[in-house]
């Protein structure tokens, strides 16, 4: 799909709904809004659409039952609230969906489910099987047990990864904002909604601010980062307000609402999607202009001669990020050398590697077959 009108042809739809959409300003679940959302999703399912729901709100639901008036600040408190709230949230969804005759399934994920290739594959197979059975997977991060090093980070990122894993046609992120603006609309009344984004440039990323509300964790920056994952996986993405009735229907009939991110033409192979967005990055390699041009041509490996800087203590086989002199990430790949050796061979021609390292197990620091472009 390459235009907004093509959203009408979307069959597999991933919807992410944020905390601010699901709760009142007090933090308590907004049951009326959840019921309306479920009604829209169930109607889409009846039309033959395949639906995956990524939901926030577990901590908020737990806050209500625990009598908390402010969002917990420590990890143990957040985990306790999530543990209490997860069941409440799922029961609420299950009740409302059952009224429409729709079966749902709870799926809790952590970063390990994307970092480890076998778990990534198992997750993909399980989700695709549920979809094939006509079940709507309801997905959240497993906040009750995840610690920072295991967390995906936010449900915007989680939803983009899920959309990539299940070969989604479109990811719709429902938030408390209308979409991406030319400036912060809360402080600048002249700010204009950007209807369509074809390329996520550094300037576009700079437009993103911090978290939109104190109840949510995903500000516009995380949504832009989710857009990078989605579009590079061949998935269209739309950011729109979840506070208006009928928003999903309007998006999927091609109405000009929200901001649509257009996908890259070629959907990455499953292995390359995992490499780009599932695997954890362990280091950063900066390349010069010539190397940047060669890599972006799509036919060149990353050679030591084009490297200008190396960051991180990565090992052979780890995934690393490749950035330009300006700091823009253009690729990710599997390192043939560890960080210590990579620093020793910065700018060195391939035929000079043996002299410095004593051996040359690889000509390339990252082979093109183990690298995926992100622009």
Notes on the protein architecture:
- There is one protein chain.
- With 375 residues, this protein is α/β, with parallel strands linked by helices.
- The protein folds into 2 domains: 4-271, Carbamate kinase; 280-373, Roll (Archaeosine Trna-guanine Transglycosylase, Chain: A, domain 4).
- 36% of the residues lie in helices and 18% in strands.
- The strands form 2 sheets. An 8-stranded mixed β-sheet has the order 3-4-2-1-5-7-8-6, with helices on both faces. A 5-stranded mixed β-sheet has the order 10-9-11-12-13.
- Beta content: 15-25%
Computed CA radius of gyration, to the nearest angstrom: 22 Å
Q: In one word, what is the shape?
A: elongated
How many separate domains? 2
Proportion in helices = 25-40%
Query: Largest beta sheet: what is the strand line-up?
Result: 3-4-2-1-5-7-8-6
**CATH topology group of the largest domain:** Carbamate kinase
Topology (SSEs and partners):
Elements: E1 12-17, H1 19-22, H2 31-46, E2 50-55, H3 58-66, H4 75-98, E3 104-109, H5 112-115, H6 117-132, E4 136-141, H7 155-165, E5 170-175, E6 196-197, H8 202-206, H9 220-232, E7 236-241, H10 247-252, E8 259-261, H11 270-278, E9 281-287, H12 289-296, E10 307-311, E11 319-323, E12 329-334, H13 339-344, H14 353-357, E13 371-373
Parallel strand pairs: 1-2, 1-5, 2-4, 3-4, 5-7, 6-8, 9-11
Antiparallel strand pairs: 7-8, 9-10, 11-12, 12-13
């Amino acid at each position: 799909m390459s235009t907004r009108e093509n959203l009408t042809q979307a069959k597999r739809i991933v919807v992410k709904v944020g905390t601010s959409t699901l709760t009142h300003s007090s933090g308590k679940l907004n049951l009326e809004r959840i019921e309306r959302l479920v009604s829209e999703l169930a109607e889409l399912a009846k039309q033959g659409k395949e639906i995956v729901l990524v939901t926030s709100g577990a901590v908020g639901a737990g806050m209500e039952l625990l009598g908390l008036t402010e969002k917990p600040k420590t990890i143990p408190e957040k985990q306790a609230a999530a543990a209490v709230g997860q069941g409440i949230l799922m029961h609420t969804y299950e009740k409302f969906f059952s009224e429409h005759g729709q079966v749902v399934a709870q799926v809790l994920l952590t970063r390990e489910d994307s970092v480890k290739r076998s778990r990534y594959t198992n997750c993909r197979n399980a989700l695709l099987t549920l979809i094939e059975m006509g079940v709507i997977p309801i997905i959240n991060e497993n906040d009750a047990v995840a610690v920072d090093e295991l967390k995906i980070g936010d449900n915007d990122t989680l939803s983009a990864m899920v959309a990539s894993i299940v070969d989604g046609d479109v990811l719709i992120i429902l938030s408390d904002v209308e979409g991406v603006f030319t400036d912060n609309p809360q402080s600048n009344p002249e700010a204009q909604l950007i209807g369509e984004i074809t390329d996520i440039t550094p300037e576009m990323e700079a437009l993103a601010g911090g978290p939109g509300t104190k109840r949510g964790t995903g500000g516009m920056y995380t949504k832009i980062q989710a857009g990078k994952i989605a579009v590079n996986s061949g998935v269209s993405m739309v950011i729109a307000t979840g506070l208006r009735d009928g928003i999903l229907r309007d998006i999927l009939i091609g109405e000009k609402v929200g901001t649509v991110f257009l996908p890259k033409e070629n959907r990455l192979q499953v292995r390359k999607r995992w490499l780009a967005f599932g695997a954890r990055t362990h280091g950063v390699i900066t390349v010069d202009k010539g190397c940047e041009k060669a890599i972006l041509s799509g036919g060149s490996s990353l050679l030591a001669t084009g490297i200008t800087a190396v960051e991180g203590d990565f090992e052979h086989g780890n995934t690393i990020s490749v950035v330009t002199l300006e700091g823009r990430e253009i690729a990710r790949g599997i390192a043939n050398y560890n960080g210590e050796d990579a620093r020793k061979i910065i700018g060195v021609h391939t035929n000079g590697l043996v002299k410095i390292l004593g051996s040359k197990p690889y000509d390339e620091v990252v082979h093109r077959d183990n690298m995926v472009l992100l622009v």
